[in-house]
Write a structure and sequence with these properties.
Blueprint (H helix, E strand, L loop, with lengths): L2 E5 L3 E2 L5 E8 L7 E7 L6 E6 L6 E3 L7 E6 L4 E6 L8 E8 L17 E2 L3 E5 L2
Parallel strand pairs: 2-11
Antiparallel strand pairs: 1-3, 3-8, 4-5, 4-9, 5-6, 7-8, 9-10, 9-11
């Protein structure tokens, strides 16, 4: 059974960068679409990025497009979320999620309900 564990969250100043990691155990990411979601206090969970199982297709929400980048290292069984030009609106708990049955397109409607495997989250705070 695939288990996920996020790391890399911390306090960062506006304009700064951060890289989050999502490590797999119990299985590899082969055949899984992997996504990053975030949830800010008092707000609904938002899907921000997703990568297909073959690493060829990615999706980004409008709120992070051009600033965030998702990538996968299958040898290390890790998915990364590189976050640049961070602002206070990026403050949230970030979760990675994976599922075998999600079809990834650049224009997909990324829904948390589509994913069955979740990590525990890592907190990102953007503040001066």
């Amino acid at each position: 059974q695939l288990r996920l564990s996020e790391s890399g969250g911390s306090l960062v100043q506006p304009g700064g960068s951060l890289r989050l990691s999502c490590a797999a155990s119990g299985a590899t990411f082969n055949l899984y679409a992997v996504a990053w979601f975030r949830q800010a206090p008092g707000k609904e969970r938002e899907g921000v990025a997703c990568i297909s199982e073959d690493d060829r297709i990615t999706y980004y929400s409008d709120s992070v497009k051009g600033r965030f980048s998702i990538s996968i290292d299958n040898a290390k069984k890790t998915v990364y979320l590189q976050m640049n030009s961070l602002n206070e609106d990026d403050t949230a708990v970030y979760y990675c999620a994976a599922d075998k049955w999600v079809f990834v397109t650049p224009w997909m409607n990324l829904k948390s309900q589509s994913f069955n495997s979740w990590g525990q989250g890592t907190r990102v705070t953007v503040s001066s």
